Predict the structure of KIB1-4 beta-propeller domain-containing protein.
Amino acid sequence: MLFDNDRGLISFTDPIFGDKYFIKTPQELIGGILMIYCSMCGWLLMCKHRRRLMFFNPFTSDIRELPNSPYLDTYCFSAPPTSSDCMVVGFTTRIEWHVYIHFVGRQPSWRKFRLNF
């Protein structure tokens, strides 16, 4: 998957057959996709400028923004954001090890837990 901000397109390449598919980039995603962290069930967990996390489904063009998060080294999610069981988990190893958890269908905040190893 490749974002082409100049042409406003997202291209997909089939890893088996090499066929290419194109979709128009939604306006909300133009200019500043930094990283795709995780994908599952057709959803991408990605970061836009200034650490704005969001879910994006390229097949439906559905976008779901998440509350601001602190800087984290990595993120993953447990289920599609349409599921009541969806939670996003992020880890950081700066100074001390912490895990941050956000329950998507619940409170609009992150919970922080210190990891003692």
Remarks:
- DSSP finds no helices and eleven strands in the chain.
- The chain has one domain: 32-114.
